[in-house]
Amino acid sequence: MSDDSCSPSPVPARPLTPAKVTTQILSTAFFTFLVYLAIGIPMAVLPGYIHLDLGYSSVIAGLGISVQYFATFISRANAGRMIDTVGAKQTVMRGMLLCTASGGLLFLAALAEPLPFLSLMLLFASRALLGLGESLVGTGAIMWGIGRVGADNTAKMISWNGIATYAALAIGAPLGVVLDRSLGFAVIGLVGAALTVTGYVLARGGPNVPVVLGEKLSFKLVLRRVFAYGLGLAFGTIGFGSIATFITLYYADHQWGNAAFALTAFSTAFVGARLLFANAINRFGGYRVAIVCFLTEAVGLLLLWVATAPEVAMLGAALTGFGFALVFPSLGVEAVNLVPAANRGAALAAYSVFLDLALGFTGPLAGLIVGQLGYPQVFLFAAIAAIGAVALSLSLYRSAQQHNG
């Protein structure tokens, strides 16, 4: 999920009008929208399918979600280097094909439901391919868009990419519930495959952008430079991971209905915050925005922890989404600026690794917390992590002031 003060990159030969910039950005972010729609559709029904239909534990249900994020994590370095060497367009196309294969395996997993272990293994393989595809498309689309509109519009590109991400999740979660109830779980895989093969065809027809020339730093060095910023991102991402993985089972434990709408509330608030505060990072700086975002997120998670009614829980999910909205770009702008232009893809990928790690570990760890302490304690754990992110961001802010002062 950075800012417009990034290092220079190739810009279009002719200056683009603001309307043309927006059009280019939206047309590129649409690829992210398609992939995250394919991710969002099974999100609300997958934990229940593993836990209730296949009969596995809450830990395995959490792992079923987290496999995707682990796969995204291990492929980030390759995604960054692919962007910096073969180009962003080719990276997006390859990611779309992986996501299409994921949809096919999810369809097969549903057909194998009478054989729970086989179904689970196919489902895990599907999630792994989806994670690989997400890594390539998510990072590739951002860098493709920046290549089309110029580095001066980096913040705008990343913000709209995030809007596309969470708008897709907001639509996908309830859509997945409707598809599951009306047509069956198998249809979810087919719909995901159809969406991403469409993305592949559209990407093939899109314009190429030049690869930025220059010395390529090792991924290990890039990772070291962005480590502290990525750690803050990881702390803040635990809240989203907890909601994405366990909100449906949390609602079921309380015997509340319409759990998918809590995901929609999170995503809608996320999109709203990005639209309302699109220029906040430019005006106040990444560190200040990050501190406020983490505080807001912590309040939302604490509401989920103490909720005694679905309305309170939905408000907590919305506040969490509102706070999480600018976490990625606020710290990301500071992180991406730490490397030369020719390594921007690697820097964005390295920074995003921490989001993947947080989402990957949150599922099984939260499952353990559920087994020992109950569902509400998951959100207390996430709130403590968000407060830790506030402390880290304050430390980074003070260090930056001393360095610049």
UniProtKB/TrEMBL annotation:
Keywords: Cell inner membrane, Cell membrane, Membrane, Transmembrane, Transmembrane helix, Transport. It comes from the Bacteria. The chain crosses the membrane at residues 29-50, 56-74, 95-112, 124-146, 158-177, 183-203, 226-252, 258-277, 289-307, 313-336, 348-371, 377-397. It is a multi-pass membrane protein. Belongs to the major facilitator superfamily. YhhS family. InterPro entries: MFS, MFS_dom, MFS_trans_sf, MFS_Transporters, MFS_YhhS-like. Its main location: membrane. Residues 220-405 form the Major facilitator superfamily (MFS) profile domain. It is found in: Cell inner membrane; Cell membrane. This is Uncharacterized MFS-type transporter ACIPEN_00310.
